[in-house]
Queue: 4 jobs
Job 1
Amino acid sequence: MSGTDDNAIVAARNFVASLPHCRALGMVVEAAGDGVATLSMPYSEALIGDPGTGVIHGGAISALMDTSGGVAVLSHSTGAAMTATMDLRIDYMRAAEPGGRITARAHCRHVTRSVAFVRAEAFDEMPGSGPVAVANGAFALERATDP
Amino acid sequence: MKRPEPIQVVKQRRDAALRALMNGVPYIRFLGIAFDRRGDELTGVLHYDEKLIGNPGLPALHGGATAAFLEVTATMTLCWATLWDDLEAGRIDVATLSASQPTRLPKTIDFTVDYLRSGLPRDAYARARVNRSGRRYASVHVEGWQDNRDRLFAQATGHFLMPPRA
């Protein structure tokens, strides 16, 4: 249903816009709904982690993947009111191409009453090169109905 | 026996080398990270700023900011540890370290963060321990805390690819 998806995107955009760290990194919600979220972030010289190559720091990609994981959890039909990262492992496969946007797509692989298991992949603008990073995380769920 | 160097000479050399390492990385400045040095031991300090917040309701630090802080502390500690002997033996000239060629930093292979409690809206500290450092790979553990050293708010382990030795 596109109506539901539109609501999910609006909710996700409002959520991300309310987070100062995401604003500082310029994160944008591209898509959200049914436990899947895609967020992107522009290249910025402030984010460079390796001055020799201009490649952005892994920490910035980690923040993008963490946020996309959280948005994926909140967009899941289980109806979590809030979520917090318990654990996140990131594999840095290759350096992101300097100058381009980074896009991360996260999806809930499994959701229990209190935990969501999430996988995320981050891409740069190099077509066919595979992800720059892959993440797996466990997110704690808080439900509005919890006593 | 060789006379010990004057304290100013020692401090100046070590602090200049540390500054040279840090100043080259824009993201360290963006996050507001500084390093406290006691001899060869480094403590990362994440100076609180509103832009680090990821949950305005609580409020709490963003998990991504925490992860980045721990990763920066791990990388700098690793880099510092590999540099130390050469620096102290006079095999590295601090002037060339700061100026022309940017230091070749270790590359993160993987990084796993364990979030133990939410990061409060105040300064955070981190110290890393290099558990294994080989010619090509290193394994580093890092602990982050705020008010109380024994109550960690996050910890992490990462593997790093070492830069080829010049």
Note: Chain B has a mean pLDDT of 91.
Job 2
Amino acid sequence: MRARQTATVFARELASYFATPVAYVLIIIFLAASSAFTFYVGGFFQRGQADLASFFMFHPWLYLFLVPAVAMRLWAEERRSGTIELITTLPVGSFPLVLGKFLAAWAFCGIALLLTFPIWVTVNWLGSPDNGVIVMGYLGSWLVAGCFLALGSCMSAVTRNQVVAFVLGAALCFLFLMSGVDLVLAAFRSWAPGFLVDLVASFSLITHFTALSKGTLPLTTAIFILTLISTALFVNKLLVDLKKAG
Amino acid sequence: MEQAVRLDQLSRRFGRFTAVDRMSFGVRQGEVVGFLGPNGAGKSTTMRMLAGFLTPTSGHAWIMGHDIEAQPLEARRAIGYLPEGAPLYGDMTPLALLRFVAAMRGMSSAQTRENIATAIERTDLAEVAYKPIETLSKGFKRRVGLAAAILHDPPVLILDEPTDGLDPNQKHEVRALIADMAADKAIIVSTHILEEVTAVCTRAIVIARGKLIADATPAQFQAFSEWHDAVALRLLPQQIETAIEALSDIPSIYEVKRMNHAADGHDLLVVPIQGERIASTVADRLLEAGVEIQDFRVETGRLDDVFRKLTTTQH
């Protein structure tokens, strides 16, 4: 029953992405920007290597803006239009609603990612890359998008204003991205004990993504990503329930 | 018989503001309860708590015996709820929306087909079933919301202003639909249109500032009005003064008011002292005085008058 309700929400939500031109615009921006970065900034040709490292490298930074834009409407729009009253009074717990919406948004990101296949075709045509690493790169990219989406969906549940949801979502994602950068870690190193510095560093999606884009999936990364997504979705559910009581 | 809906001291506060204050009442199957009150009185908040959209701050409520907080899903299964303003997904067609609701309610595909066909027929939606909801008129949107509420043929219907914003014909249709379903359901309809109460309700509950202040049948409410059993008269213009003179010394008459003929078609309103019946006395007196009566109407009482009296007095 819960699985069917989740699937029903998923299908409705995914269809509603494609009911507005916004979805197509986001996909086009993602495709255009990811190609531009790969060729002009990443130096795809100049590197002379048959891999997609220069393609995946920029994904977390692109997601920083695009994924919160995908996530912002999930709950804020329900609240603004009042349809939240329609779905939350159906005989369904709030978790199937949260999960169904999240999965729909994640599937949407997956579709956008799959549409980058020409670059995979290109690199295979130009040389003979390790396609296993490329698959892991795609998987890693999709997982990072999932983390950002879960955070963005959470932020979407606190407001009825999509712009606010976007800004909060992007800010939260930025924190998780930046925590692994030396600039941030240096600020901690001066005073914090070593384990704390390591802890902050381990929150960094960049660190985990780098491992993935090299073709490996360390256990810590898998656990971290699963924990981050499930925690964010759990908080999301609490936020949806809290609005009823507050 | 177990009451279909029961509220016991149900309250809801928003910060320091008490929107619903210790509300208690029950509704049986077969009853259509009109929920009356000025805007902001707490009608929607009460309905939202019953439907499971808001959590009560204190108190309890049961839907078909299910506690709304302890067994929320069972309670919601028994309810058909039309939220205020009938919010809907604009990008969906009515048919897709009804399919969505049917799937969320766990209906089998045969059941879905049958229930959707019935709901569409009852709310007369066939002609727009394939058009996106955002392109529909307000009346159709409201009917889509109603169709979604009655889709699973629930024993309890909670309708928040189902006729708000509809044209007179659409209002009539919605009322007919409610009356049609009334026999085997417990229905709560909120409204601030008073004619609706006399048209469809078997009982009316008046609330103001979050408190229940009256609970009676529409007829009892009308009896409460100063217009109740008053006599409205249409007379020949030259005989109006004679008539006032003739009625001046009857003890059971409280006052004789002049009325605006153009607006109402009557010239005089004879108001009795509360509880007195004056129709035959008035008729006798006028005939004795040789006044020719053009029209003679005994008023049943005006709800808007009672409504104003009830909701504006301080408690």
Note: Residues 16 and 76 of chain B are 28 Å apart (CA to CA).
Job 3
Amino acid sequence: MSQTAFRSLFPCFSTKDRFPVYLDSAASTQLPQSVIDAQVNYCRAGHANVNRSGHTLARQATDKFNKARQLVAAHIGAQAEQLIWTSGTTDAINTVASGLTHLLTADDEIWTTELEHHANLVTWQQLAATTGASLRYIPVLENGDLDIAYFEAQLSKRCKLVAIAHVSNTTGAINPVARVARLAQQFGAKVLVDGAQAVAHLKVDVNQLDCDYYVFSGHKMYGPTGIGALYGKPAALDALQPSKFGGEMISKVSLSGSEWNQLPYRLEAGTPNIIGALGMGAAAQFLADIEFSERHRHERQLLSYALQQLATHPEVELLAKPMLQTSVIAFRLRDIHPQDAATLLDQQGIALRCGHHCAMPLSAKLSDVGSLRISFGLYNEPADVDALMQAIDHCVELLGDD
Amino acid sequence: MTKLLQLDLDAIEQRFSDCRAWEERYRQLLLLAKGLGKADPALRQEAHLIDGCESDVWLSFEQQQLQLDSNAKIIRGLLVMLLACLDSYPLSQAQSEFAALLTRLGLAQHLSESRNNGLQGIWQALHAIAQGDEQTFCR
């Protein structure tokens, strides 16, 4: 499939109004027609609650809902019953954190890294505060990669959990999560991988990664917002105590007590986001329908072109040079505050992110005033990079004259 | 209290009146930014910091003297406008006049709450200092 063909699958790029040069897919991706259709068609055709009523419409809704679970599970190489619907990555991480509270004591260590999104950092700070466990960080090296050697040297059987991003949302660095999982599991620790920034760009196979939990969001893989998933190995999901109660998570209720339903329902309290799940299922199908090598080649070419253009621009400073990187680039313009740059780039129709990208500890390490971040989706083309470079020149010209 | 700035609102509007393209508006705004003077290290301290995700704004009010600063030039330009509004109106009215001014000058995007740029925090801080006395920052 050609570049233009990818773009043509997303209706927002053919609207009459001028659509921006969209370089903010790490914040949220655009929706292809098939994902929009899956949700709209379901609403039009008639909706019913799932897993409850036995009438025909309800059974049809349940079938579609189950099919979506299969599709999303298959996207990361998992089985449907290993996949819990959540409202997103943050919700999934919180489900694991509160679910594991009962297993942690003041003697234990929780490990995460300095490059995490706040969702995969603050949640563990809270869990450490609640349980008395120590929170430790895998440091970030100068180039943006993790100091795995430090982790390896410090790791002991005190470590009960490691929470690590598959891909950094700030620098696009691809972390060696399989290696981290192997190291941690030698000491019996559980491993959670935050895959929010990976699932749209890498071929993810949870069996090969061998992590205990893998969490991700619909809206960063061409699906809708408000839906995400928590994958877990059976024993890892069994270990989680439910933190929300009600609805299909219950199997039997009496006034003296209740019993929980089996997985995955036990961790899905209340009526699920059915429309969102169908959208996320359609997004997984959308990605499965395109040969991975084709997607990968397109994104690699785009990344190399952007890196080369940015690296050779005299006013651009790249803030990280990780060994392996995907679809995200952090940079600054020399002597220009990122917010000033972002404002003038926005005026020129460039949509990118400015600030600390919800990863303040890493951001502070890279630059004292935050950074600019561009990130790609399938719909981006080299022309978008050209437009960015032109807009940067104009921006430097306006801001750099004193 | 002494007048905060040389430029009054009319003079600011005048500067923007001939601007056609967005570039010209922002050139004017960047010129205005210079009116805020040099960065004062005594002001740029943690204690004076107003949180904003994208840029920092510092505010102090000591001996009836209001000082504002930012590390982003465009925000500095907007601060000059904000001070000019405070110069001409009581606090609450200054806030709405500031919003009206930005809208008239084609800079309304800076009022959006999706840009956590520190501007919203300034008004909150000013109201907190004034404690209901709308004339606190008036001449």
Note: The helical segments of chain B are 9-17, 22-33, 73-88, 91-104, 119-130.
Job 4
Amino acid sequence: MTAAIDVKGLRKSFGPRKVVDGLSLAVQEGEICGFLGGNGSGKTTTIRLLCGLLTPDSGSGTCLGFDIIKQSEEIRLQIGYMTQRFSFYVDLTVEENLNFVAQLYQIPDREAAVKDIMVRMELDNRAAQLAGELSGGWKQRLALAAAVLHKPKLLLLDEPTAGVDARARRAFWDLISDMALDGMTVLVSTHYMDEAERCHRVVYLAGGKIVVQGPAVDVVENAHLVVFEASGAGIGKLVHQAREAKGIESATVIGQALRVVGTDRAVVEAAIAELKAPGVTWHDVPARLDDVFIHLLGTEEATP
Amino acid sequence: MSGFSVTRFLAMLHKEWIQMRRDKGTVGMTIMLPLVQLFLFGYAINTNPRHLPTAILSGGHSQYERDIVTALANTSYFDLREYNSEYEVDRALARGDIMFALHIPPNFERAVDRGDSPQILMEADATDPTAIAAAASALQVIVPTALTRDLPPNLHQSVVSAAPAFTVALHSRYNPEQITAFNIVPGLIGTILSFSTMIATTLAITREREAGTMENLLAMPIKPLEVMLGKIVPYIALGYIQVGLILVAAVFVFHVPVLGSIPLLLLCLGLFVGCNLAMGFTFSSLARTQMAAQQMSTFALLPSMLLSGFLFPFAGMPVWAQYVGAALPLTHIIRICRGTLLKGNGLADIWPDIWPMALFAMVVGLIAVRSYRQTLD
């Protein structure tokens, strides 16, 4: 397998703020790589560095075998980039927007290509609708259609499903999975854990550096988190007490359950032994990806 | 909820104040711009221009002729240069190198001494009636006094009483009736065009940036020149429609004469539109917001209006202001419009005004392409 993305030591500052701080990343061909991290952790900036929209202060590497600094024009031709903010012309129709993109990429047999992608994304019924009048989910579809219209080898998606409903998100991810099966490499940033779990590998960024990476299952396992859930009528009263308790990093009410997370099993068990209320029982439950990320966000804040 | 709430009003006021303070560039421009312009235009504009370039075409160099030249020079309205042939004078007048031409007939001295009261011809370029008005009236004043000192005593008497020693005929060329519209309308063609075309492109890039479409455009394989030309060409077409309408109105409503070649004028106007679009595109690339871009174009338009010779006589401006004016495309297109329409000037006559525009278009076009940032850095 060859690397679709292979960059080392990328750095980018805006004024005094180091946004990307020595980031090295390798993504294999055909891989779906999930980019995670809090707001301002450098996800968007990294993606922009990869597609040549920003020039790194230092560092080097390749995207699809092209140098990210010297050959950004070649890279542009072969990647699809979907911006975080909807960036199509609201006063053009779906079809007109796609035609415009197809022309910029000089796609042969443009009409057929546009028609084909519209059918594939189920946009054909909305071909004549103004892009500005589409709902959130359909706007994302249009943006994805435009990003893959020229059959790129690498797809960079920056929070593609932010603000989109669950059904639309699932349909969107089905499309991405299909394209990955066809051999396209996908780098996608997201805040949704269900989406992160659909990636072959997740990369967690904090302060412009990669903190953790690997398949979601491994990331959860390697974090060695201890998670307990309590259920019963009295959990509401226990929340605040739980948050003060030693060894408990987070305590959250999720629906009918109180979920506490810690790292040291003995300490957590000792802590919950103190958290008693009538009708409340504790169960040992497996950690989830979001527990890991909240844990990572917490340690990030602790280390200035 | 009903009624006016001072708290809500103050909240809004406070918010605006914070926003304004953070936008230092705009505030600075809003305060400094009027001051700069006040000084610029306050010193540059002069509706009673002096030192107007004047040609002398004289048959001889008699004492009387020298007296007349001295008298003209003393009024400070005329800067005199000698010319040798009618043809040269005509060309210079058409090109706008001179505004007046003084023709002193051969054997002038002898005619005066004979008491024939010969006539001197002063031709004036009347395409800008304001510019020549004061100078033309000063001309009549010198007639009775210019020769007083050197006339023989027998003629001296007659100057005061009966027939003057000589007379001056003023001949207004190109616009004999000195109709103001003939001056204003050709000037307006350029002015209106610069407004409409520059403002249109000024928003071209900033609009993409504010709508968020710029990021996507940058990520796609398109070159700066392609973006620029793609955005400019539709407006050139629009500009030509405007030119057509203005020309039709100028001819049929204002009855502006058309002595020169319309295709030549159209070609020049196309170049002029190109200058403005390149300038608008540059502002658009440099400015961060639409508001800032609009301010920049205002900064360029006002001097164009005031220093181009459109509203106020070019010849009346101090030399430094004339240099500023000479750099502006509007100055040249106004001369070309007046020249081709009113004087019937051809390519050779208007060439001195074509190349500066072409140079401007090239330089600013280059800046426009360079200033288009291909990255988000």
Note: Residues 52-173 of chain B form a domain with the abc type-2 transporter like fold fold (CATH 3.40.1710.10).
